[in-house]
Design brief:
seven-stranded mixed sheet; alpha/beta; binds flavin-adenine dinucleotide; five-stranded parallel sheet; FAD/NAD(P)-binding domain; about 300 residues
Length: about 300
């Protein structure tokens, strides 16, 4: 029987594990298929406090793991397939094996939607990115033309943010109006550095041969005419999918699948807590995920203390 099972090994999961471990709870961290979480897919992280020169994403996550393990956290490479949260203790199925636990911290993150292009995949982290806040300030994008793909609030926010760095920001959207809220759309379109490219989809990111982004091939969906836009970076902002499907019907989720936290890091099920991007469609940063992980562990510790009284 486990005291605390942390589902997920990103910033939220390992920070929750650190706090739970220091409280003597020997948490079990289930890594999922991406040990270390999303941050391991990026090179330099420049906005995590405490690293004035920046830190490699993989290195940062290895350090978080080591720090939690030092106090007794245990990592297990496993994916939760089902979760029965209607019984006490809770029952998880991890790669076919049952795991019983008194508390659960859900820290499963959110996956970004991809365009689904081979060239996009090949140039990921070589000019193709999914986070303007994370990567926009990198030297490679400074004073260069940039492309944002999408038409919602996130795409507008990313495009506006990127005007600080890029010479011009092309906002490529498949329709002829933005899906974003009215005020956000108006502000975006009023920005002289943002050039909307309407009714268009990206069909290829250039240039795989050069192993870096030099432009995008776009097709106008109304005329079928193709053209090339030169750029140094492609910021894909077409949404995220929280990894919460296994909790559907048990944990309160919003219409997009994000966990709805209650009183900070709690959920509608007593003993189940949540942290990180799977409950946050607003900030989606390493430091906010870590902060939520801390809160979830403190709540789990308090819950276990009341159980044993
Ligand atoms: C390319 C890129 C660059 C970024 N750069 C920065 C940056 O510079 N600064 C910054 O602050 N943020 C950055 N971010 C955002 C940051 O990575 C996320 O905000 C952060 O990783 C969220 O942490 P998390 O723990 O909530 O989720 P994640 O890091 O997504 O971790 C989720 C974890 O859950 C596990 N999991 C999922 N489902 C299951 C399951 N069923 N069973 C078991 N485990 C499961 C996964 O394997 C993974 O370990 C970047 C993101 C990307 C994609």
């Amino acid at each position: 029987m486990q005291n605390v099972v942390v589902i997920g090994s990103g910033c939220a999961g390992w920070t929750a594990a650190l706090y739970a471990a220091r409280a003597g709870l020997q948490p079990l961290v289930l890594t999922g298929t991406q040990p270390g979480g999303l941050l391991t897919t990026t090179t330099i992280v420049e906005n995590f406090p405490g690293f004035p020169e920046g830190v490699d994403g993989f290195e940062l996550m290895s350090r978080m793991q080591k720090q939690a393990e030092r106090f007794g956290a245990r990592a297990s490479f496993g994916t939760v397939e089902t979760a029965d949260l209607s019984r006490s203790p809770f029952m998880l199925t991890v790669d076919g094996e049952p795991v019983e636990t008194r508390t659960v911290i859900i820290a499963t993150g959110a996956s970004h939607r991809h365009l689904g292009l081979t060239s996009e995949h090949k140039l990921e982290n070589k000019g193709v990115t999914y986070c303007a806040t994370c990567d926009g300030a990198l030297p490679v994008f400074r004073n260069q033309p940039l492309v944002v793909v999408g038409g919602g609030d996130s795409a507008c926010e990313e495009a506006t943010y990127l005007t600080r760095f890029g010479s011009v920001v092309y906002l490529i959207h498949r329709r002829d109006t933005l899906r974003a809220s009215k005020i956000m759309a108006e502000r975006t379109l009023a920005n002289p550095k943002i050039k909307p490219v309407w009714d268009s989809v990206v069909t290829e990111v250039l240039d795989v041969q050069q192993d870096k982004v030099t432009g995008v091939r776009v097709k106008n969906v109304k005329t079928n005419v193709e053209s090339v836009i030169d750029c140094a970076g492609v910021f894909v902002a077409i949404g995220h999918v929280p990894n919460t499907q296994i909790f559907k019907g048990q944990i309160d989720l919003d219409e997009n699948g994000y966990v709805i936290p209650k009183h900070g890091a709690s959920t509608n099920v007593p003993g189940v807590f949540v942290a990180g991007d799977c409950a946050d469609h607003v900030y989606r940063q390493a430091i906010t995920a870590a902060g939520m992980g801390c809160a979830a562990a403190i709540e789990a510790e308090r819950y276990l203390a009341t159980m044993s009284q």
